[in-house]
Amino acid sequence: MKISQNFDILFKFCFVIVDIYNQLFELHRQFLDQRKNEKIITVYYGQNMNADELQRQKENIGGLISINTFLLTRIDQTIALEELSYSNVLESVFYEIEIDTSITTKPYANVTVENKSGILLSIGSVFRIESVKMNQNGIWLVKLKWGNDVQMQLKHTLELIKNKIGDIPTLFLTVGMLWDKVGDYSKSDMYYRALIENLPKDNMDTGKLHNFIGDLFCSRGDYSLAISQHERAIAIYKTSLLAPTHHLFAYTYGNIGLIHSQSGNYYAALKYFNITLDTLLKTLPPNHLDLTQTYSNIAQVYRNICNYTLSLENNKRILEIQLAHFSPVHSSIATTLNNIGSLFLHKSDGITALKYHRKALMVQLKSLSHDHLSVANTYNNMGLVYHFRKEYTKALDNFNKALDIQQKLTEPSNMGMTLINIAMVQCEKRQFTLALENLEKTLGIYKKVYSLNHPTIALVYDCFGSVYQIKGEFKMALKMFENVLKIQSQCFPNNHPDIGGTYNNLGGVHDDMGDYERALKYYYKALVLAHEILPQNHPDIELYQHNITEVKRKLA
Predict the structure, then answer these.
(1) Which Gene3D superfamilies would you find in this protein's record (predicted)?
(2) 311 and 206, same structural domain?
């Protein structure tokens, strides 16, 4: 069946939906009159769902969720629990929904449907996911909230979308985004295509839509589809007779650069970022704040290819622009000082690195609260410098300062990198049990936030592998690095530099085990991949070549 035919059917149902909605709106007024003294109403609803759908909700704590049907909920928690069926295949999920009665954007009311009475929530109601936890009976308890702060969050999200796509009719887009949110990409893509097919081909707003959909594809890791959407946007802007210096060209080239950067195609990323910069400089003064994001993107690419000198040049340019616009104690200046400090650490200049991180801390303590997350990040940076200088006590002191701040915040995932940093210092001190305990904590935290094939999970396994390798437990080290490779192969292109690093790690473990033939195989894999994508003077290439030479010497 053609997409257009599907939408004909959907629109026939629209009249029924509108009629139900209008009736519910009338009942809603009566319902509120009867409950004038109740500021908060709590309702309950149970359902079974597959593990992937539940995982997406676990990963979206603090985010918004919308219902795409009219939902009959219960006021009595016990009745709602009794109605929840159990399945050996699906997860049992029980929702507790807190509703602020002062919010009237979507109707709800007490109704009776097929001898079942409860609160009927309107299609399109939007809630924030407050928490997702399993109780002692194996039921997942999901707390949702509908209040003023949720409405503000929704309003902000919709404003961001409007700024990106203009005044495009958003029915298809909204439905597509909902399917995107729950991970059903085939359905979301169908709605996006339907929207595009119903818009003029040479309209500037259609180009903005392609940009927006490109961003969505990028966020789910579909890099080739993302690039194709941005390229279509550029083609539309050209046929719309926009000036080559129009900001939409710069924005789109910048997006393509970011996708190449995330894919590990650093030279392609540099090409597009430089096109973006050239486009912006034709219409903006050289110290305009809008230039700083592009300089930052360029600096990050140079950092990734280990050209720290050029990365420093771009970060110092950012600092010059910021100092021309902001007070010397602005938090953005602290961020740039931290970036410069990290680059000096990469250049093995710990003294200068520490100087910049201390400057950043001084700025933050004057402009932010002392328990701000950015302050914790600076303590982490200082800890890394002390780790590099083998001043382990000072390193742990700074990491613990960061941890103290992060533990006061509501999001546990903030602690992840700090626990990793602490674990790696403990590994250096041969405190393997403590190191492994902290990595286990980190893995537990991240599994509640990220999908199991997320690069952040791979990072934790990589640290596990390093600890086990230093500890001499080579089989466990191999297992961990193989886990890393499995995740990377699912979320990165085949020639991503991080995959080369994992090949090298696998080679290193086999090398330590005396299995030189297998070690050589992995070292060569790492080298071939690095030659594909990295500059010939990159330190990784030098390292892989050195490892190959050493193993050949051992075999000889």
Answers:
(1) Tetratricopeptide repeat domain
(2) yes
